[in-house]
Amino acid sequence: MRLGRLIFILLFIFLGMTLGLQTSRAQTGERDFEQTGHSVTGEFLAFYQSVPNPEVVFGYPITDAYRDRRTNQLVQYFQKARFEYHPTEPLGKQVRLAPLGLYAYVPGNPILEQPDSAACETFLPENIRVCHAFLDFYRANGGEAIFGRPISQLESHDGLRVQYFTNARFEWRPERPEKHWVKLTDLGQYYFTEQKEDPARLLPTTDGENILAIRELRARAYVQNAVTGRAGSQKVYIFVQDQRRLAIRDVQITLIVRLPGQTEKRFIVPDVTNVHGLTQYAFDFETEQIGLAEIEVTASLGAIKTTTVTSFRIWW
Question: Quick one: which of 296, 281, 286 has its CA closest to 235?
Fold first, then answer.
């Protein structure tokens, strides 16, 4: 049974790490945006609030945070940016901006201006100049740390005077009030569409009182004993989160146990998940055959359901 105990210990180490992450997020706060119906939490919120004018620089969130299946990264889209979480980086550097300016850049028509060294800064070795209001905006809102370096000169795109940076595109909008002549393109919205992300992620997830609405369940299940004999007792541990990887309480769990050579047995777990998203259930079993025993776990919260599978080996 040593292997079973090892699995049990590893399970709770994993759950401890996960719950620690949730605690970290709670400590760094949560903010609901009624403008789009989405929330920003934890490290993403800390990064969002690290600039003087986050609504101007990043815009409002257009999704909640979720795990990108292609990269397995935790990401969140904003109108003008995409945040990416890199947990292996040092604290304070774990949130990065995707280089959306670089992704979106298509060369336009260069706009030639008279050199004015006092109103411009030249970035070497590319020898690209950033001037006037663009330079003021760049310096006032985070500079290279937020926007990256310029990747184009001043250009004309679709009748607009624009300049591309690694993480953003600046637009010159003289029809707006003076303090708003510089506007950032909604590259977050653009890239979300270009990547053919699930449009359902754009749907609001907060209600009228800015309380997070649960629209997706994610369940994991683990057995206490990975290898057993033909008869004995098995315990299953279940952990349930929502679409933001936050633990969910009051979720009902049902099990379907399929032993080798036997028909399936169904169980309703009497204890719903607790405040940490956890519950467990033990059942007795007996079979004449060795082989793989499969446990299908269904988590239900109202009309929202999800299913996962775990298993154990009957060896002797």
Answer: 281
